[in-house]
């Protein structure tokens, strides 16, 4: 049997922009993507702490060390600049392997989304 488990999480990061006219996705600072083990094009879940909204989209790279977290396309209607969100990705593992798997968790500074 295989199960879906948390693979990566960027916990409590501030939204820096919302671009309704972009095609779709979430733009994430490249340094945050690397630290959290999320790759470009990977499906991610977004949880908005401010309004409780939950949505799924895919990740694209933003400029490294920019702190950028921008929801694009229809997802832009689910957030406002300054909202705090959690970004989660999942992996599918064999049940026994999942028991010992450790996800990559990142806790950036909420004020500027930096890793320090």
Give the secondary structure arrangement, pairings included.
Layout: E1 2-14, E2 17-19, E3 25-29, H1 30-36, E4 43-48, E5 54-62, E6 69-72, E7 84-94, H2 95-100, E8 104-106
Parallel strand pairs: 1-8, 2-6, 3-5
Antiparallel strand pairs: 1-7, 3-6, 4-5, 4-7
Give a short overview.
The protein is mainly beta.
What does this structure look like?
By secondary structure, the chain is mainly β. It has one domain: Beta Barrel (Barwin-like endoglucanases), CATH 2.40.40. It has two helices and eight strands, in the order βββαββββαβ. It has helices at 30-36, 95-100, and strands spanning 2-14, 17-19, 25-29, 43-48, 54-62, 69-72, 84-94, 104-106. An eight-stranded mixed beta sheet has the order 2-6-3-5-4-7-1-8. It starts with a strand and ends in a 10-residue tail after the last strand. Catalyzes the pyruvoyl-dependent decarboxylation of aspartate to produce beta-alanine. It is found in: Cytoplasm. Its cofactor is pyruvate.
Helices and strands, in N-to-C order?
A: EEEHEEEEHE
- By secondary-structure content and strand pairing, the structural class works out as mainly beta
Distance between the termini: 39 Å
The side-by-side strand order for the widest beta sheet comes to 2-6-3-5-4-7-1-8
Q: Residue share in helices?
A: 10-25%
| Domains, number | 1
Q: Please, how many helices?
A: 2
> How large a portion of the residues is in β-strands, by DSSP E?
over 45%
The largest β sheet comes out as: 8 strands, mixed
Protein name: Aspartate 1-decarboxylase
Keywords: Autocatalytic cleavage, Cytoplasm, Decarboxylase, Lyase, Pantothenate biosynthesis, Pyruvate, Schiff base, Zymogen
Active site: 25, 58
GO cellular component, one term: cytosol
């Amino acid at each position: 049997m295989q199960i879906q488990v948390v693979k990566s999480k960027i916990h409590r990061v501030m939204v820096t922009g919302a671009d309704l006219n972009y095609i779709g996705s979430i733009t994430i600072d490249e340094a945050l993507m690397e630290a959290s083990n999320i790759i470009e094009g990977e499906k991610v879940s977004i949880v908005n702490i401010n309004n409780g909204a939950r949505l799924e989209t895919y990740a694209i790279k933003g400029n490294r060390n920019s702190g950028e977290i921008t929801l694009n396309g229809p997802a832009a209607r689910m957030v406002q600049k300054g909202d705090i969100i959690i970004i989660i990705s999942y992996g599918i593992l064999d049940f026994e392997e999942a028991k010992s798997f450790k996800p990559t968790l990142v806790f950036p500074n909420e004020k500027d989304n930096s890793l320090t």
